[in-house]
Amino acid sequence: ADLTPLANTEKSILPVAPLAKGRGNGIGTIGVSFVRPKVVLDPGHGGRDPGAIGMIVEKEVTMDVALRVQNFLKDAGIDVILTRDHDYELHSNKSADLNMRAALATDTQLFVSIHVNAVDANTYLRGYGVETWWNKNHPQSSQLASILQESMVNMAGAYSRGVKNHQSLAVLRNNKVPAALVEIGYTSHPVDGMNLKDANYLDRIALGIARGIREALTSGVAGNVVAGKVK
What we know:
Blueprint lengths: L7 H4 L7 E6 L4 E7 L2 E6 L14 H18 L3 E4 L11 H10 L6 E8 L12 E4 L7 H16 L3 E5 L5 H4 L5 E8 L3 H6 L3 H20 L6 E2 L2 E2 L1
Parallel strand pairs: 1-10, 3-4, 3-5, 5-8, 6-7
Antiparallel strand pairs: 1-2, 6-8, 9-10
């Protein structure tokens, strides 16, 4: 992975133009106004649910990265809804918690959940790199996942484990907009775990996610959008 500090020229993200929002009358779109694009960032776990524990604690790193992504996106004119902004859970029941996170994407364009991977100790040397998951909740979720995966790998230099969709994940399948879940490394791996403690790596992963979100929005991968206009 690339652990060098971000250069000032790397930190900037080009602004995203406001989206035209209106309501349909069955023929076209009327009452158009312009709004900033809005996305949901979901720092995985929180509160009594720490997530994976190894060289780092998953819930702490996912919160850290989500805040970094939020800062990058704000500079690009993109509004961010965080499913949590500190160490707490949305509901004591895990299923209800995941459903509440997904529900926050209503009337937004994209949903991205941030997680850290782990494997059993007897196979930990096989678990390293980044991967992105999608479910068949929306026709454009697979494209969002591919964009995010490529952007993270390019920005952070991490080993790519590719894009996957063979597991049904509640936070994705219950979403109404294009949604993806990124696994930004393995806390159970000796090298990945060290990377996840490195501020430069976290900056690069966060910028990769932010640039991926921007690319998705500008290339038409966005929920509630038809012909460049928000429904």
